[in-house]
Each structure stands twice: as structure tokens, then as C-alpha cells.
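Render this sequence as a predicted structure.
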Amino acid sequence: MLKPAIFFLLLTISFNGFAQTNVAANTTVINDSTIYTVVDSAAHFPGGMVEQNKFVAKNMNGAVGIDNGAKVGKYIVIIKFEVTSEGALVNFQKKTKFGYGLEDEVIRCLKLSPNWIPAKRNGMNVNSITEFRQFFVLDKM
């Protein structure tokens, strides 16, 4: 009997999205815990998308979906989280609900990542929100 193989294309086109909303540009906030949604530059993985894709390919368990009974198909998992002004990733929220361990696996992998380059606003590192999208192609062979 052939062991199911995963053609998991961690199509490590892991996308980072950045949600923006309208915030008064001249608002002065001294509270260090403010989470900014409008920034001059978004938080990102150190080394950019190329390094992020290498990291995900090395650390993501693509078999998790098949191992947990997911149907063959394409899944885009979306995780929203905060990147602190120090670059730490915190407060993960599952935006998709596929189950089969897919969202949990993406969060596990994100927690392993090095600190990100924080968002900047007016030349200062600030807390921000970002979305991470991970594309899985699951196939039994």
C-alpha cells in the first residue's frame, strides 16, 4: 500500500497583508501600547519575502492537513497578528476556520520565526497589525 504523499505546495507565497484604516494623521499618541493601522512602512520578515519563503519551507509541516483528514484541495489560511515595536509576533487570531490543524500549524510556524522588522511611523518603530496568508495544496498520491 502506497503511503499518501503530500504535494503540499506550501506555495510559500506566504503573503503578508496589511490592513489600513483612516486615522487622523496629526494624532499624537504617547501610549506605548497603541496598535497602529496606518504606518509609513509595514512590518515584515527580516530579509523580505525570499527569506520568509525559505523559513516557511523549512519549518512548516505541510502534511498536517492530510494527517488530520483534510480533503485534497487548495487552502489559503489567514492569520492576523500584532507585530510589536520590538518585532515580536503576538496575539494571533485565526481568520479562516478550515480546521485539520492548518491554522494551528501556521501559528506554530510564525511563533518560531525570528523577530520581524517592526512597522515605522514618523521614523519610529510602532506596534501594528498584519495578516499572514499561507497557501496549501494538499494532494494524496
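Summary. Strands lie at 15-17, 35-36, 73-83, 89-94, 119-121, 124-138. The longest helix spans residues 48-59.
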